[in-house]
Amino acid sequence: RRARIKFCWKCLLLSVLLEKAVFKSYTLRCYHCENSPSLCKTNSTCLPTEDTCLQMKFGKLRTFSCWKASQCSVNDIAESFQLDNFEFFCCQHDLCNESTITRVNKAAFSIASVMTMLWMLL
Protein backbone atom coordinates (compact mmCIF):
# COMPACT_ATOMS: atom_id res chain seq x y z
CA ARG A 1 0.00 0.00 0.00
CA ARG A 2 1.34 3.42 -0.94
CA ALA A 3 1.51 6.13 1.62
CA ARG A 4 -0.19 9.29 0.53
CA ILE A 5 1.51 12.54 1.21
CA LYS A 6 -0.87 15.36 1.79
CA PHE A 7 0.41 18.51 0.17
CA CYS A 8 -0.64 21.91 1.42
CA TRP A 9 -0.63 24.47 -1.40
CA LYS A 10 -1.72 27.21 0.96
CA CYS A 11 1.18 26.40 3.28
CA LEU A 12 3.65 26.54 0.39
CA LEU A 13 2.29 29.85 -0.85
CA LEU A 14 2.33 31.33 2.65
CA SER A 15 5.94 30.23 3.26
CA VAL A 16 7.11 31.67 -0.09
CA LEU A 17 5.40 35.00 0.59
CA LEU A 18 6.80 35.13 4.12
CA GLU A 19 10.32 34.41 2.88
CA LYS A 20 10.07 37.17 0.25
CA ALA A 21 8.75 39.64 2.81
CA VAL A 22 11.54 38.91 5.27
CA PHE A 23 14.39 39.04 2.77
CA LYS A 24 13.06 41.97 0.73
CA SER A 25 12.40 44.11 3.78
CA TYR A 26 16.08 44.21 4.74
CA THR A 27 18.15 46.75 2.89
CA LEU A 28 21.82 47.34 3.43
CA ARG A 29 23.20 50.62 4.78
CA CYS A 30 26.56 51.87 3.48
CA TYR A 31 28.67 54.97 3.83
CA HIS A 32 28.16 57.15 0.77
CA CYS A 33 30.56 59.90 -0.33
CA GLU A 34 32.11 60.65 -3.70
CA ASN A 35 35.70 61.79 -4.15
CA SER A 36 36.23 62.47 -0.46
CA PRO A 37 39.74 63.32 0.81
CA SER A 38 38.93 61.76 4.20
CA LEU A 39 36.81 59.01 5.72
CA CYS A 40 33.11 59.34 5.01
CA LYS A 41 30.61 60.27 7.71
CA THR A 42 27.42 60.17 5.56
CA ASN A 43 25.48 56.94 5.14
CA SER A 44 22.47 55.90 3.13
CA THR A 45 20.12 52.98 2.60
CA CYS A 46 20.98 51.00 -0.51
CA LEU A 47 18.53 50.07 -3.22
CA PRO A 48 17.13 46.53 -2.99
CA THR A 49 19.32 45.55 -5.97
CA GLU A 50 22.49 46.75 -4.20
CA ASP A 51 23.76 44.08 -1.82
CA THR A 52 27.31 45.27 -1.14
CA CYS A 53 29.12 48.29 0.26
CA LEU A 54 32.09 49.55 -1.75
CA GLN A 55 35.05 51.68 -0.81
CA MET A 56 37.47 52.72 -3.49
CA LYS A 57 40.68 54.73 -3.19
CA PHE A 58 42.35 56.48 -6.09
CA GLY A 59 45.20 58.86 -5.35
CA LYS A 60 44.27 60.77 -2.20
CA LEU A 61 40.53 60.52 -2.81
CA ARG A 62 38.04 57.88 -1.71
CA THR A 63 34.58 56.96 -2.91
CA PHE A 64 32.13 55.14 -0.64
CA SER A 65 28.90 53.72 -2.02
CA CYS A 66 26.34 50.96 -2.32
CA TRP A 67 27.21 48.42 -5.00
CA LYS A 68 26.29 45.03 -6.44
CA ALA A 69 28.31 42.00 -5.32
CA SER A 70 28.17 40.64 -8.87
CA GLN A 71 30.05 43.77 -10.04
CA CYS A 72 32.65 43.84 -7.31
CA SER A 73 35.59 43.08 -9.55
CA VAL A 74 38.56 45.07 -10.78
CA ASN A 75 37.27 45.18 -14.36
CA ASP A 76 33.69 46.20 -13.51
CA ILE A 77 34.80 48.94 -11.12
CA ALA A 78 37.46 50.24 -13.52
CA GLU A 79 34.88 50.42 -16.30
CA SER A 80 32.16 52.04 -14.18
CA PHE A 81 34.41 54.73 -12.70
CA GLN A 82 36.73 55.06 -15.71
CA LEU A 83 39.81 54.55 -13.53
CA ASP A 84 43.03 52.68 -14.10
CA ASN A 85 44.97 52.81 -10.83
CA PHE A 86 42.89 52.28 -7.71
CA GLU A 87 42.35 50.13 -4.64
CA PHE A 88 38.97 48.85 -3.47
CA PHE A 89 37.10 46.50 -1.22
CA CYS A 90 33.54 45.26 -0.99
CA CYS A 91 31.73 44.03 2.11
CA GLN A 92 28.20 42.94 2.89
CA HIS A 93 27.05 44.17 6.27
CA ASP A 94 25.77 47.53 7.44
CA LEU A 95 28.29 50.38 7.34
CA CYS A 96 31.22 48.03 6.74
CA ASN A 97 32.91 50.31 4.19
CA GLU A 98 34.13 52.87 6.72
CA SER A 99 37.66 51.65 7.46
CA THR A 100 40.78 52.49 5.51
CA ILE A 101 41.64 50.26 2.59
CA THR A 102 44.25 47.64 3.34
CA ARG A 103 42.85 44.81 1.28
CA VAL A 104 43.13 44.70 -2.52
CA ASN A 105 44.73 46.81 -5.19
CA LYS A 106 44.43 46.28 -8.91
CA ALA A 107 48.00 45.13 -9.56
CA ALA A 108 48.04 42.64 -6.69
CA PHE A 109 44.67 41.26 -7.73
CA SER A 110 45.81 40.83 -11.34
CA ILE A 111 49.00 39.01 -10.32
CA ALA A 112 47.06 36.75 -7.95
CA SER A 113 44.56 35.93 -10.70
CA VAL A 114 47.30 34.98 -13.17
CA MET A 115 49.10 32.85 -10.58
CA THR A 116 45.87 31.03 -9.72
CA MET A 117 45.15 30.30 -13.38
CA LEU A 118 48.70 28.98 -13.92
CA TRP A 119 48.43 26.78 -10.83
CA MET A 120 45.13 25.35 -12.04
CA LEU A 121 46.62 24.51 -15.46
CA LEU A 122 49.56 22.57 -13.96
Describe this structure in words.
The chain is an alpha+beta fold and 122 residues long. The chain has a single domain, classed as CD59. It contains 3 helices and 7 strands; from the N terminus they run αβββββαββα. It has a 5-stranded antiparallel beta sheet. Strands 1-3 form a two-stranded antiparallel ribbon. β4 and β5 form a beta hairpin. The chain starts with 8 loop residues before the first helix and ends with a helix. About 6% of the residues have low confidence. Keywords: Disulfide bond, Glycoprotein, GPI-anchor, Lipoprotein, Membrane, Signal. Interacts with T-cell surface antigen CD2.
Topology:
Blueprint: H1 9-25, E1 29-31, E2 33-36, E3 43-45, E4 52-58, E5 61-67, H2 74-81, E6 87-91, E7 104-105, H3 106-121
Antiparallel strand pairs: 1-3, 2-5, 4-5, 4-6, 6-7
